[in-house]
Task: structure prediction
Amino acid sequence: MIDYLDKAARLIRESGFTVAFTGAGISVESGIPPFRGKNGLWSRYDPKVLDLDYFYSNPHDSWVKIKEIFYDFFGKAQPNPGHIALAGLEQKGWLKSVVTQNIDNLHQEAGSKTVWEFHGSSQWVVCPRCGARHFATEIDMSELPPRCHEDGSVLKPDFIFFGEGIPREAYDQSFAAARKAEVMLVIGTTGEVMPASMVPYEAARSGATIIEINPETTPFTNQITHIFLEGKAGEVLPELLQRVSQLIVD
Ligand code: APR
Result:
């Protein structure tokens, strides 16, 4: 009986360049629901609140929902053992970087140093007119929408809305990491959103071994995944870190 966890651990230990690609699933055990699926955010909220045109034509309504989801709710979340195990792999030199679709800053709070935020971050809000950037916690959200002190424009969270381009550096660094990867961990994502979902395909095309961690199969599983570790990120990743650490490599 092949022990896939052991096999995955050996591949990571022998790899010269391992990258993790994460989605909403890694933050589920921190109390943040995924976007899709039965109890997903999009089953409770209309995704139009994150549509750029809708945001600019309905700033108050959009901000009321955005505050509820991404600040009142997300703001209380803490990193879980899954985030912490990835930071541990990086600290030991067995992981080069994390490419994340998440905007919750939990990888950084867990201690990860190299994190490419493909969809931006909820930590900051920006003025679309003068470009002023503010820490979200410094903004008074008692009156919505929050406005720029300089020019009174509606402030926008510094994460990517549907219909908005990907931050240049995060895009370039994410695909560069994918092309260099010998191993890519694909964790907690359905891969339904482009162009983010192209990152694992780019890694596979460049010869990387794909190790997927998810309690359910995804479109990646039958197309590019080499090792599928069925389970929750907060349970599988600490186990994987332990196995990598215990391995004796000649
Ligand atoms: N551990 C690992 N994976 C999990 C866990 C868990 N504890 N719980 C759920 N999952 C998996 C689900 O099975 C699903 O495959 O996480 C995945 C979550 O998928 P989505 O909700 O589609 O999230 P994601 O792929 O990150 O969405 C991509 O869509 O709405 C946009 O911008 C948003 O970045 C987001 C993008």
Summary: The first strand starts at residue 18 and ends at 22.
